[in-house]
Amino acid sequence: MSSFRVDLLTREYPPHVYGGAGVHVEELSKVLRQHLDVRVHCFDGPREGMPGVTGYTSPPAEQFGNPALVTFEVDLQMAAGAAGTDLVHSHTWYANLAGHLASLLHGVPHVLSAHSLEPLRPWKAEQLGGGYKLSSWAEKTAYEAAAGIIAVSAGMRADILKAYPAVDPAKVHVVHNGIDLDKWRPIRGAAAGAIAQQYGIDPSRPTIVFVGRITRQKGLPYFLRALDQVDPAAQVVLCAGAPDTPEIAAEVRGLVEQLSQSRGGVIWIEEMLPQPQLNAILSSASVFACPSIYEPLGIVNLEAMAAGIPVVATATGGIPEVVDDGVTGWLVPIEQVQDGSGTPLDPDKFVGDLAAAFNQALADPARLERFGAAARERAVTHFSWDAIGQRTIAVYRQVLGG
Q1: Nearest-CA neighbor of 210 among 247, 259, 250, 245?
Q2: pLDDT, one tens digit for every residue, the chain (402 residues)
Q3: Do the Cβ atoms of 145 and 356 come closer than 8 Å?
Q4: At what angle do helices 275-283 and 299-306 cross, to 10 degrees?
Q5: How many Å from the N-terminal Cα to the C-terminal Cα in the chain?
């Protein structure tokens, strides 16, 4: 089969992108369209003026009473809409059930990309209540029946086989996330400084930047506690919003207020920034913070590295496959509870180790510059979307029979 049609099933797609999985589908669809007939099915309503993209409108939440049931209703529409395809490729639990049902309905293979795993995010029970059991059931059903599974890191592959032992290891392929190296690039001097100043950032000060949703997996509370032990000359920029629950929103707000009383230069940007502005803020920073306790790969690390800044990140999940310790940044060790939550066995030690890594990074500006250049080079060499697209097509051809 020289060419074929593939339907990508996803919750997020432009202009409604809020996380790494949405970025992945957006960029993957671009490179796949150069070689295949690609159709995209997504949530959040119709996409006018976007050929080959079908957006489905969710029913009112009160109609079903739980967001997981609302998701399933959209999945039913997506499964029906995939008629005529040769292969369906779903992303995240939000669309996994749609992929599974489309496979059964239309007699085509289902490939899914593992961006995260429900068993490793037990805190989502806070967000979904009983819906967490539904999301977990949908994911497990789809994984065990899929013709192929793409893990975004070797660490994620190991997690899949541990969480779902019924899955045939031969079906699980590692294809890393990629990065758009034209969009994410170093911007130096006045251009970056002017954008940074719009948000109250002082370009002349050493700066630590965090980017991520306010969710348990991102480890933001540990990071905020660690900052009490970090050189107060450093400025802290938190690009953090979209909290999972009111409880974690309140926890983070309290920690930020407490931190702001003990040190100056704490800047919290709660809205989702346009990509050019975020790229400029990253470019003007000294070091990027990724204190995640669960991270299958971490596109945010790739974005920072492509912008030419080094990373201080937790040595968990797929992060060590991105951040080269002692070359492009610092990996912070962590021992974690083995209950799926990722909670540090010794939270105080983890907080102290985070702080020590940031202090070590900030103590040597020349080394920061070297590591930043190496980070950009690693992003260019290993994580281009063209290479990721070709590896994905190879998985498609394998499940289609050659």
Answers
A1: 259
A2: 568 999 999 999 999 988 788 989 999 999 999 999 999 999 999 999 999 999 999 998 888 888 899 999 999 999 999 999 999 999 999 999 999 999 999 999 999 999 889 988 877 777 778 899 999 999 999 999 999 999 988 989 999 999 999 999 999 999 998 899 999 999 987 878 888 899 999 988 999 999 998 999 999 999 999 999 999 999 999 999 988 889 999 999 999 999 999 998 999 999 989 999 999 999 999 999 999 998 888 889 999 999 999 999 999 988 999 999 999 999 999 999 988 788 999 999 999 999 999 999 999 999 999 999 999 999 998 898 988 999 999 999 999 995
A3: no
A4: 70
A5: 8
Residue 21's alpha-carbon distances to 2, 85, 185, 312, in angstroms, are 28, 22, 20, 22
What is the total residue count of the chain? Answer: 402
Closest CA to 39 of 87, 74, 94: 87
What's the token pair of residue 94?
């939000």
The amino acid occupying position 269 is: I
- 78, 73, 46: which is closest to 59 by C-alpha? 73
Distance, C-alpha 274 to centroid of its chain: 17
Q: What angle do CA 181, 186, 190 make, to 5 degrees?
A: 145
Chain centre distance of CA 302: 10
